[in-house]
Design goal:
heterotetramer; A alpha/beta (about 250); C mainly alpha (about 250); D mainly alpha (about 200); A: about 250 residues; alpha/beta; six-stranded mixed beta sheet; four-stranded antiparallel beta sheet; about 35% helix; C: about 250 residues; mainly alpha; about 70% helix; flat; binds adenosine-5'-triphosphate; binds biotin; binds magnesium ion
Chain lengths: ~250, ~250, ~250, ~200
Amino acid sequence: MIRLANVHFSYADGNIGLQDVSFGIPAGELVVVAGANGSGKTTLLKHLNGLLLPQRGRVEVDGICTRDDLPGIRQRVGMVFQHADAQIVGETVAEDVAFGPENLCLPRPEIERRVTEALEAVSLVHKKHQRPHLLSGGEKRRLTIAGILAMQPAVVVFDEPFSSLDLFGVRQVLRQILALKASGRTVLVTTHDIDKIIAHTDRVVLMQEGRLVGEGPPSQWLPVVERYGVRQPEASRLGVAVRSWLN
Amino acid sequence: MIRLANVHFSYADGNIGLQDVSFGIPAGELVVVAGANGSGKTTLLKHLNGLLLPQRGRVEVDGICTRDDLPGIRQRVGMVFQHADAQIVGETVAEDVAFGPENLCLPRPEIERRVTEALEAVSLVHKKHQRPHLLSGGEKRRLTIAGILAMQPAVVVFDEPFSSLDLFGVRQVLRQILALKASGRTVLVTTHDIDKIIAHTDRVVLMQEGRLVGEGPPSQWLPVVERYGVRQPEASRLGVAVRSWLN
Amino acid sequence: MAELSVFGYRHGRSPAHRLDVRCKLIILLVLTAAVVAAPPVAMGPISLGIILLWASLRLPLRRLGREIRLFLVFLMAVFIVRALSTPGVSVVDWHGLSVSREGLYQGAVVAWRLMMVLALGLVFVTTTRPSHLKAAVQWLLRPVPFVHAPKAATMVGLIVRFIPVLHQQVRETRSALAARGGGRQRLRLGQIRYLVFPTMRRVVLAADQLALAMLARGYQETRTEPDLHATAADGLALAAAAAVLAATLMI
Amino acid sequence: MVPNDLRPMVLASLFAALTAVGALIALPVGPVPIVLQNFFVMLMALLLGPRWALAGMGAYLLAGALGLPVFAGGFSGLARFAGPTGGYLVGYLPCVVLIGWISARGRGHRLVDVLAMVCGTAALYSCGVAWLKVVTGMAWGQAVAVGVIPFLPGDIAKIIAAVLVINSLRQLTAMNGSASGPTPAAASLLAAKWRSHAGSSGKQR
Ligand SMILES: Nc1ncnc2c1ncn2[C@@H]1O[C@H](COP(=O)(O)OP(=O)(O)OP(=O)(O)O)[C@@H](O)[C@H]1O
Ligand SMILES: Nc1ncnc2c1ncn2[C@@H]1O[C@H](COP(=O)(O)OP(=O)(O)OP(=O)(O)O)[C@@H](O)[C@H]1O
Ligand SMILES: O=C(O)CCCC[C@@H]1SC[C@@H]2NC(=O)N[C@@H]21
Ligand SMILES: [Mg+2]
Ligand SMILES: [Mg+2]
C-alpha cells in the first residue's frame, strides 16, 4: 500500500519536481508511471524510497511515512535506476549484489544465501565472480535488479528499465517484473515506451509538469496519453479506431 | 554513396566487432541498422566516419576510402552518438555547435552563420548562450544534431537517437532526420525501436554477431526481425497476420 | 558553488561584459594587485568601486550567498585565527584565549581583502564568455615557450565543461548507494570505495567517449582562432585601472 | 596537427576537473585545509605519467588563476598563489612530475607506486611548508606543525586508496573503455593516418 498526500517538491535551483500529488496504490499492483520528459516521473519514484523527502505533504508505504523511518523505507522499497553503470558499486557481480544486504547488517551466511538466490532469479549465477563492467548492457540491467531482489523489498520501482535493451533484453526484464508481481510485490515502472509493458499493467499514473493528471486503468487513459507526451501503443490506437467505426 | 567491402574488425580484447561485412547504400537513402545488443551496430557506424578503421576490407564514402583521407571523411560523415552528454564539448550551446566548423578552419563569420543556421534548424536559437548541461534531455539531443548540421555533412549517422526521449522529443528528432533526407543526405539510424522510424525507411540493414544477415526494403525483413532481437512493429505484425488469414 | 552555476558566464550587456577579454584580464590583475597592496584607508573607495561593478551585473545575491557559504566559513576561520593569534591589547579574555583589538582589526582587513579578490574574480568569470576565456588563455600563453597555447586553451575549456558533469555523476552514484541502504548515515569509511570506484570508472569512460566525439567532429590542433578586438573604451578602462593601482601605491 | 594525444589531453582535463571537485571538499584546520584535492592529483600522475600530469596541473592552476573557483574551498584568483597555500599549489607541479616519473619505472608495481606517491608528497610538503613559513613568518617547527602534521593521516589514507584504485583504472584506460573507442592499436593507426595526411589535406583549409 503506497499513499501520497499533497506532495510538493522543488529542487534547489527552483525547478518544480512535484506539485500537489496525491494518490494511492494497493499492494500487489503493477503500475506504469508515464509522462513527457521532465514531467516528474523520476522525482516521484525517488520520493517512494525516501531519496527525496517531500517539502510539503507526506509519502507513506505500508503505513510508514518516509520522513519517520528512512532505513525501514529503503529496505521496503527497492529502486532500479535508469543508468545501470551509476548503481553498480561492487568489484565483482556477487559483491555488488551483497551491498544491500550488508547495509541491512544481516549475518554473512544469510547474505550469501540471498546473493545466490537473487543471482539465480536473474540467471547470472555463472557470472558471479566476473567484473561487472565487462557485462553486456542487458546483463548489467539484470545485475541491478538482482541487487534489489537481495534486499527482499515489498515494493520495487524501475526507472526506464527497457532503455537501450534489445528484444531479448526487454523480454528478460519484463519476465523479472512479472515474477515480482506474481510474488505479490507492488511494482512501479516508468517508461516512454508503454507498449512494452501495457498488456500487464493494472494502473497508469500520468504526470505532466510535476502534477498528477490522470490515474486509473490503462483502458481509460491510453486513448489520451499522446496529449501528455506518451506514445499510444499501436494496438490501443487501432482499438480506438475500430470502436469509432463500430459506433 | 557508401560502400563497405569485406570489412573485418575485432577489438583489442578479442571481441569481434564486424565480420566480413559488405554492402552498398545509394546516396539519399534513409537506412535503419537493426540488431540485438552487441551485434555490431555501433561498431559499423564508427567505421563510416573513420573512428575505427577496418582491419581487413575497405570502407568508402563517395569514393573516398576512410583509410586515405580522414579529415575529408570526418567532414563528409557526421556522427550523432547515443549519449548526448558524452559528446557536448562546448561550455555554451553556441560554442558547442561552433566546435566542428572551427576544426574545419572556416573563417569566423562563416562559422557564426552556420551556427545560427544549425540552431535555427533544431529550434534552439533562444538557448544560444545557455550552458549545455542545464538543457533537458531532448534539447541536448537536438544540440548534438545541430553540432553535426553545422559541419554540413553529406552523410549523417545516428546511434540510438530516440532513446529516453518522450513522444514530442521523438517527433522532433524524426523531423530533423526527415529534413536531412529531404535535403538529399544519406542518413543511417540504429535503434531498437524500429517502429518509430520504419514508416520512412528505404532500407533495413540487419546485424547479428558482427555479421550482416539481411539487407533490403523493410517489407522484406520486418516479418523476420524478431529472430535477430529486434521488436517487430505492431503494424507489421498485424499486416502479416491479416495476409495469412487472407491466404 | 558546488554546482558552479552562479560561477561561470552569465549572458549580459553590462560594461564589464563588453570589454575585450585581454584588457579585462589585465585589469583584473591590476585591480587584484591594488586590493592586495592597498593600505586600509584606500580599501574604502576601492571596495565601493567593486560593489558598484557588482551591482551592475545583477547577480542573484541570495543564491550566490548560498553557493559561496563554504568560502564564507573560510573567511570566518581566517578572521578568527587572526583575531586570536595577533598580539596586542586584549579585548576579550576567555580561558587563556585572548582576542586582541589589533587581531580583530587585522582579521577584518584580511578577510575583507580576500572577499574583494574573490569578488573581482567573480566579475571576470561571470562576464566572460568561455570562448573568450579560452581566447585569453591562448593569447596569454602564446609567448610562453614549450607550451602549446591552443591546447592549453582547450584544456581549460574542458575543465569548465567537466566540473558540473562530475558533480552530477557523484550525485547519481550517491543516490544509488542510498537507495540500497548505504549513503549518508551508513556510508562507513570502508564503503567510500563504493563511491569512488564506480564514479571514477564512469567518468573515465565518459572522458573516452568525449575524446571520440571530438575526433568525430574533426578535432584539429590548428583551428579557427578566436577573434578579439579591442576598442578605445578598452584602453580607457585599462588606463583607469592603472590609475587606481598607482593611486593606491602612492598613498 | 596530430591529434593522437587527444585522449590523454581529455583525461588530463578530466583529472584537473576532479582535482577541482576534490578541492571543494575542504576542512579548515588552520591556514591550510585538509582537502581531497591531492588524491586526484596523485591519481592523475600515476595514470597519465609526468608529461600529461604536468599539463593537467598546469591547466588547473591556470584555470584557478583566471578566477574559476577550483582551489581549496572554492577560492580562486592569482592572490591565492600569494596566500598561505600558494606553496602547495605550485608544489603540485614537481609533485606530479616526481610521481609520474617514478611510477613509470615500476610498470604498475604497487610498491613503486606507493614510493612514488610518498616522494611526490614529500616534495609537495617541502614547497608548501617553505612558502607557508615565508608568508606567515612562522618558525620552521610551527610551519611543520600546521603545514604537515595535520595532513599525515589523511594523506596516508589517500595514498592507500590511490594504490587500490589505480590498477583497475589503468586497465580501463588501456582497454580504452570496453564500450567506447578505438583500441590502442587502432588509435595509433589512426594517429599515423592523421600524421600522414595532416600535411596535405588537413592543413590547406
Ligand atoms: N537534480 C535536479 N536539479 C534540479 N532540477 C532537477 C533535477 N532533477 C530533475 N530536475 C527537474 O525537475 C523536473 C522533473 O524532473 P524528472 O527527472 O523527475 O522528470 P522525468 O519525468 O523523470 O523526465 P525524463 O522522462 O526525462 O526522465 C524537470 O523540470 C527537471 O528539469
Ligand atoms: N571498446 C570495446 N572494446 C572491446 N569490445 C567492444 C568494445 N565496444 C564494443 N565491443 C564489443 O563489440 C561487439 C559489438 O559491439 P557494438 O557496440 O557495436 O554493438 P551494438 O550493436 O551497438 O550493441 P547495442 O545495441 O548494445 O548498442 C560486442 O560484442 C561488444 O561487446
Ligand atoms: O589552496 C589550495 O587549493 C591548496 C590546498 C593544499 C592543501 C594541502 S595538499 C597536501 C596537504 N594535504 C591536505 O589534505 N591538505 C594539504
Ligand atoms: Mg526520469
Ligand atoms: Mg550500440
